[in-house]
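Students often ask what a 'structure token' actually looks like in practice. Rather than answer in the abstract, let us consider Small ribosomal subunit protein uS2, a protein of 326 residues. Its sequence is given first.
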Amino acid sequence: MWAVPGSGNAPLRVPHVSGARVGDQPGADDKLHMKVKYMAVVTMKQLLDSGAHFGHQTRRWNPKMKRFIFTDRNGIYIIDLQQTLTYIDQAYEFVKETVAHGGTILFVGTKKQAQESIASEALRVGMPYVNQRWLGGMLTNFSTVHKRLQRLKELETMEQTGGFEGRTKKEILMLTREMTKLDRTLGGIRDMSKVPSAVWIVDTNKEHIAVGEARKLNIPVIAILDTNCDPDLVDYPIPGNDDAIRSAALLTRVIASAVAEGVQARAGQNTGADTKPEGAAGEPLAEWEQELLTQATTPAAEAPAAEAPAAAEAPAAADAETPAQA
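Now compare that with the structural description of the same chain:
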């Protein structure tokens, strides 16, 4: 029998201290001179239950991912979840700090397995998202995209205020179709007034255009790294299964929870409840952020209830994928 290291059921508690790693324990000086916040980001059991450890078939892989692979079993690579936990902590801290200082995270996932979780988690924390087709230039040509967003809002206003009245049925039909098309492709970023501070991506191979645009603009990329991905393209990688629905949903929920914690920290900075780091340029809270703070925040990486392991799901999804470029 093979085993994934550290697969106990106890929650992994990670000290959110600069430079901390999984398993680190604060010393006496740390306890005296700094405030250490412990938080169960995600557990090994949750990762295992979601099938996050299943990679692609051994013949479909990117050699650059070798350092993230624990072993292979029945022709399927098994991802080292101990490393996954470490990288989750790093990504979580980055997202939290980015949002705490006024940044936004764009959630991107257009594959069927990720569409629902991308939309629901982004909406939960008030962040923009793209879960349909990625339009080329959505980041690099944002000025044009912004004009289309203004057109969408204009059409919606016309519909709500009776602006369609007095027009022919054909004109109304054309305007309605235009509005529907714009809402389907741009609805998730309707409130995005500028390029995001960072992007969260599920499946960097499928979203290679989004990754390329983000890198061109020096926008940090946070992403799930399956065994067929190129880690050199990602700034904050999280080794894991990007094909299983539950794996993508779990890791997206973790990122969303980091956003929620960042919003709370930002609120503390604005109210003076916490000391703002020197040079921090926080922005006033938006209305959606104020509303978010009045609601109970969903616990970080709350596991789906009573779900069967995704052992069968992940290999099946891997078979449907195209071979990675070495």
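One point worth highlighting: Residues 13-129+198-320 form a domain with the Rossmann fold fold (CATH 3.40.50.10490). Ask yourself how you might have guessed this from the sequence alone, and why that guess would often be unreliable.
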